[in-house]
Q: What sequence folds into this?
């Protein structure tokens, strides 16, 4: 069953995911005894802090009309449940698993914005979500490149 949410709610979910991901990486940092994984986790903590700030700044730049646009949309998996499942799956991650977590989280957010964008008819709201999706997709590519570089350490 679909529920009604605003574009602002979708963006708030993304901010919460970045904040939750940062906390997840902090917890995993304390559980991992793998030096390479710890380096990657330190990087991921900073990455999530930067992404939370970037998405928050985009939200602040959004007009009240766009942010208040209602859409009929349901998350396939709630953000808290998604993060909890990742935490459960990776209790003491290796460097490769840290990379996997990061890419999965970024993919989740791109899908979140793409799914929401498909449900909207308002052009300005579509463009706003596309900007957010592009930001996440760009960061996913940069993250992938950085993780590959760090992986070679």
A:
């Amino acid at each position: 069953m679909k529920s009604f949410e605003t574009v602002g709610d979708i963006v708030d979910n993304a901010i919460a995911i970045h904040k939750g991901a940062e906390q997840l990486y902090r917890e995993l940092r304390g559980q991992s005894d793998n030096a390479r994984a710890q380096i990657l986790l330190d990087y991921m903590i900073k990455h999530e802090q930067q992404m939370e700030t970037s998405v928050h700044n985009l939200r602040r730049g959004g007009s009240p009309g766009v942010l208040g646009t209602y859409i009929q949309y349901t998350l396939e998996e709630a953000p808290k449940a998604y993060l909890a499942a990742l935490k459960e799956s990776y209790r003491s991650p290796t460097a490769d698993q840290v990379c996997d977590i990061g890419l999965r989280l970024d993919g989740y957010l791109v899908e979140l914005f793409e799914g929401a964008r498909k449900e909207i008819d308002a052009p300005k709201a579509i463009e706003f979500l596309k900007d957010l999706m592009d930001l996440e997709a760009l960061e996913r590519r940069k993250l992938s490149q950085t993780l590959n570089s760090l992986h070679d350490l």
